[in-house]
UniProtKB/TrEMBL annotation:
Highest taxon above the source species: Bacteria
Signal sequence extent: none
Entry protein name: Glutamate-1-semialdehyde 2,1-aminomutase
Pathway the protein takes part in: Porphyrin-containing compound metabolism; protoporphyrin-IX biosynthesis; 5-aminolevulinate from L-glutamyl-tRNA(Glu): step 2/2
Subunit structure: Homodimer.
Name of the gene this protein is made from: hemL
SUPFAM superfamilies, sorted: PLP-dependent transferases
Family: Belongs to the class-III pyridoxal-phosphate-dependent aminotransferase family. HemL subfamily.
Length: 430
């Protein structure tokens, strides 16, 4: 069992100067019983090394971006090379064009693209563009889908589809929340009701086409097609939040995998190769609402910065190689099959959900198809599982709502070692 003395000491120091000791609340261990989060010192390939000298097999993958493993030589090289040529210009560069073309080749529904610096910014801007284009204010989202921390999307579900949202965070004015309507994922009738109720006030319906924020949850057959039909019949746009899903399951977006296309798409994470990035894009006529061509304003000192462009290009060059996703799928299946065999062997009340290299273990015997079901899973059992893993050298997100993300750096041996750890946890801690 690992000890974490140095992590604990550093966390005390951190709490003295960094609010709550973390720069993003999901990094704290609050959801798994508290205590100091492990402080990492360095990362290489599939591994993390903490400040106490412990090694972990990493499946957090920085909440998704690190799909090629840490410190991938090709991305490292691109960053070093670019930093010698300057990392921020504030002028147009050829790199931006090359990168935008590369993304559009893989995701043709993004007829026009803009780069920003985070998923939050990308989503926030698609909402502004949709509002500008439709001249309407309200947005419909799905319960449990996370779309960053801008005001409007930090709104919880009302108690019914015809109910307006209330803020999920202090500091978000009620007036802002009034423009967000939340309905359950995979529930087309609730969407129909909401559209019938709010009609021509609805600018857009926004969705994670494959959910990554209450575990990996796929849409029911036909669900996304129906969203398109219902929204478009109402004169509303469809926005896909592909911050997690773009380049996650294939060389392209979830929209390309499923063959259903939105009007606007927000992206982030993987496309930056680990550097800060966001991007949004979509139909040309809609995108032309954005300055300097149109009246909707979006800007950024760091937007399209050469460092992120170079890292992102290098990342996509790695991902476009043949067999990358078949290999992620093969290893993902091996991990999932192994975990399911252990669930069975030790009689653990759990089941898994996986698509290619993204996996969730839900501590319930029910199949999870919406947020309510994910919320109803056993948080205490998850906390025990998480603590068992982290004290034996497997790092995952400290939340029952997050996925495990495999990378191209994981090997068969890493999966076998991970399964041995899971077995040890089920056998001794459950
Ligand atoms: N949308 C989705 C689907 C996300 O998962 C996230 C982040 N987890 C965001 C938006 C926000 O992205 P960022 O943290 O880069 O602002």
């Amino acid at each position: 069992m690992f000890t974490h003395k140095n992590s604990e000491a550093l966390q005390k120091e951190a709490e003295d100067v960094i609010l709550g000791g973390v720069n993003s609340p999901s990094r704290s261990y609050k959801a798994v019983g508290g205590g100091a989060p492990v402080v990492m010192d360095r990362a290489d390939g599939a591994y993390f090394y903490d400040v106490d000298g412990n090694r972990y097999i990493d499946f957090l993958s920085a909440y998704g971006p690190i799909i090629t493993g840490h410190a991938h030589p090709r991305i490292h090289e691109a960053i070093v090379e670019q930093s010698s040529r300057g990392i921020l210009y504030g002028t147009p560069t050829k790199l931006e064009i090359d990168f935008a073309n590369k993304i559009r080749q893989a995701m043709p529904a993004l007829e026009k693209i803009r780069f920003v610096n985070s998923g939050t910014e990308a989503v926030m801007t698609t909402i502004r563009v949709a509002r500008a284009y439709t001249n309407r204010n309200k947005i419909i989202k799905f319960e449990g889908c996370y779309h960053g921390h801008s005001d409007l999307v930090l709104v919880a579900a009302g108690s019914g589809p015809a109910q307006l949202g209330s803020p999920d965070s202090a500091g978000v004015p009620e007036g802002v929340a009034q423009d967000m309507i939340t309905v359950p994922f995979n529930d087309i009738d609730s969407l129909k009701e909401a559209i019938a109720h709010f009609g021509d006030e609805v600018a857009a319906v926004m969705v994670e086409p494959i959910v990554g924020n209450f575990g990996i949850v796929e849409p029911f057959e036909g669900f996304l097609e129906e969203i398109n039909e219902i929204a478009h019949a109402n004169g509303s746009l469809v926005i896909y939040d592909e911050v997690i899903t773009a380049f996650r399951f294939m060389y392209g977006g979830a929209q390309d995998l499923l063959g259903v296309y939105p009007d606007l798409t927000a992206m982030g994470k993987i496309i930056g190769g680990g550097t800060p990035i966001g991007a949004y894009g979509g139909r040309q006529d809609i995108m032309e609402s954005v300055a300097p061509l149109g009246p909707a304003y979006q800007a950024g000192t760091m937007a399209g910065n050469p460092l992120s462009m170079a890292a992102g290009l290098a990342c996509l060059e790695v991902l476009e190689k043949p067999d990358v996703y078949t290999e992620l799928d093969r290893l993902g299946k091996k991990l999932e099959d192994g975990i399911n065999a252990l669930i069975e062997k030790y009689g653990v009340q759990a089941n898994t959900s996986r698509l290619v290299g993204a996996l969730t273990i839900f501590f319930t015997t029910e199949k999870v198809t919406n947020y309510q079901a994910a919320e109803d899973t056993d948080g205490e059992m998850f906390a025990k599982f998480f603590r068992g893993l982290i004290s034996r050298g497997v790092n995952i997100a400290p939340s029952k709502y997050e996925a495990w993300f495999l990378t191209t750096a994981h090997t068969d041996e890493d999966i076998e070692d991970t399964l041995a750890v899971v077995e040890d946890v089920f056998k001794n801690d459950f």
